[in-house]
């Protein structure tokens, strides 16, 4: 494939040679931090990959795209897209032993933009991700009460009834939108800073700072807890969930396959996007973490193991979530039917026990025959189990509304609430470690902070800065800003960067050189599967996903869902259009990280051109001087050893 | 004879009169609905005439308790329109004049005052012994002085602050130990220098790595 490779001069001078790597390995001379043991590395990567998306995005996709049938596109794309990209990032990080900016500028100075893009995306994602942590902490703090505050509506000011907003919606909705977020009806009203959220926000960043203050020295210890605790809690919830009534309804609903969904291209697109985001690729964090490994670490095996663990965790978490959702849906369904039965009993003064769930339909039918007008006037609710099962089961709605409601129906609710929010916190915190790594290491590589500053100071400054900028998300309109950042900042730029990464490694760094590197590191050349996926299949998949995503996003008018108590369809969220000034923000979020790749290349090119002549001259001179000194020293050394003998 | 006929008429007429006073949707009456099976499940007792009598007695008690002067009796509570749902209507007549009904508002006050006692008499609750039209008063919300979440927050933030201070202290101590080690041991200096050279390399440009190994060669 030599013809497709772009010539890359001076590459050997920018990257460590094999001899140097062996030396680093054997003499342990180097100031780069190292993992204490393999387990720390694996737990950190697993923690980074397994995040909130596994809990609240994957189950929703699974259920909405044909249940068990969704596994097929998911697994196929996991193998064709996730594993190769993962292996690539691990291998290149381990080989070049630098953070994202360092790696890409070593491969070619014009590619520094990829590293900068990764850093920007990591920064944007860190900002809003930690706000979700703040929300989780708020719910966690409020779980230490006997009656959970979201289980009942508060009484209004003159004690005559319940608060109207709560009565019209539900206690959990009210608690989330009013008492937690205090959300404004639209994004133009900022609503001011919510002091309780500011406290939680600050505590989330402070906790993160402690864990990342010394880089992997501290995160390596923290991941023993943050990466393993979610699995323990999921297992506890699974056992509890399976003993609840109606849980199997949920699991059946989740996994019932609908093969027709496989014909729908959106299913494949969503599966591809989910695999991609789930693996936290193109953030730069994976590169960084793998660069702290020993040179001969088996990155191929790691990539396969991590992919399997990530996929399995997604399926496991989906099962657990849906047992609880099944329980909640069944409870709601039972309540709905009981409510209708009671209405019938009361209206027709029938003895209790005459109408049960079993003969409800019969009785209703016969009564409808004899007294149709009365039945019409009753406004009986339609109770459909499937509609309860498909209610709001994605994103923050799942965690803070649906799941919290389910918890209130379980006995000993505070315990389950505490466990659940600790699990969410650990899942998010371990992902934050990777995000922050993707911000801190490039900053150090770029020399933004003075070299004399210790690691703690750099971490501290970054945390303080992010905390201050993140105050956008704790205003009244913060929720809308967060979903804006999530849809535009954390999606399209990553696809661009990942595509550039693959192309950069395969065609600029050289796939042959890369194969040799891997052979040096793990002992054998990557087999045909890797060759085909790296060269053609994965970049093609990335490209297709990017094009479709881009087209869909550009075509639709950006809308957001607002909680407006004055709207007509309250409590359904109101769909509103973004105001025009938002487009500037969207451009900054999606455009700047994506455009950083070509822009940095152009900048470097221009700088090179205007200073090129001087540089060439100096470089030639320096080379001759250095080579002659090297020869001189070698000959002296030889003579001295001879003399000693 | 005439007196005897009048007496007979009264016996027949009184219930008829009572029947007129108590009827469905009576302006001064209340409908009561009882859900025994919902409240007690398997332990539900049967609703029979004795229970109805007990209800009359309880209502009479409630009226006495409210209007402390007047002596209400079971006869003053008239029940009608009983259904198998277990629901019925009742009106309250004045003890002085059995044809006069006590106004709705007064009955409501009496019921509200003794609601708890009435519920307990029948082992029921506000939800299972309903007086349609008399809404149960909502429980006053319990407002603790410090919201519980602030306590937990305080604990967590305290632990975090302790952690940060411990971290900073430990890094300061490490730095001091390193400095001590450097000044005491001269031989380490060269090693440090080697590391220092590596540290000082600017990763952003191109440089010749061949140079760094030199120091090791010359360290005979």
From TrEMBL, chain A:
What stretches pass through the bilayer?
Answer: 41-58, 70-92, 113-141, 193-210, 222-242, 271-292, 304-325, 415-436, 457-476, 488-511, 532-551, 581-603
What Gene Ontology cellular component terms go with this record?
Answer: brush border membrane
The family database entries (SUPFAM superfamilies) matched by this protein are listed as: SNF-like
Q: Which residues form a coiled coil?
A: none
Q: What InterPro entries has UniProt attached to this entry?
A: Na/ntran_symport (IPR000175), Neutral_aa_SLC6 (IPR002438), SNS_sf (IPR037272)
Recorded GO molecular functions are:
metal ion binding; neutral L-amino acid transmembrane transporter activity; symporter activity
The keyword Transmembrane is annotated on this UniProt entry: yes
Pfam families associated with the record = SNF
Might you name a Gene Ontology BP term for this protein?
sodium ion transmembrane transport
First-listed, main subcellular location of the protein, grouped into a coarse class: membrane
Q: Which protein family is named in the record?
A: Belongs to the sodium:neurotransmitter symporter (SNF) (TC 2.A.22) family.
Q: PANTHER family given for it?
A: SODIUM-DEPENDENT NEUTRAL AMINO ACID TRANSPORTER B(0)AT1 (PTHR11616:SF125), SODIUM/CHLORIDE DEPENDENT TRANSPORTER (PTHR11616)
Designated name of the protein: Transporter
The gene it comes from is LOC112238959
UniProtKB/TrEMBL annotation, chain B:
Does the record bear Signal in its keywords?
Answer: yes
Alphabetized, the UniProt keywords read: Cell membrane, Glycoprotein, Membrane, Phosphoprotein, Signal, Transmembrane, Transmembrane helix
GO terms in the biological process aspect are: positive regulation of amino acid transport
Alphabetized PROSITE patterns for the sequence? COLLECTRIN_LIKE
Membrane topology field? Single-pass type I membrane protein
For this record, the Gene Ontology CC terms, alphabetical, are:
extracellular exosome; plasma membrane
Where do the TM regions start and end? 149-173
Q: Name one Pfam family in it.
A: Collectrin
Domain Collectrin-like: start-end pairs = 26-220
Compartments where located:
Cell membrane
| Region forming the signal peptide | 1-18
Protein name per the record: Collectrin-like domain-containing protein
